[in-house]
Amino acid sequence: MKVIFTCFVVFSSAFCLDGKIVFEKYCWGCHHQTSLAFGPSFEEIANHRTSGEIIAHINNPQESFRNLGYKRTVMPAFQLSSAEYEALSDYILSYKSIKKE
Ligand code: HEC
Question: Which pLDDT band holds residue 83 (cuts at 50, 70, 90)?
Answer without folding.
Answer: confident
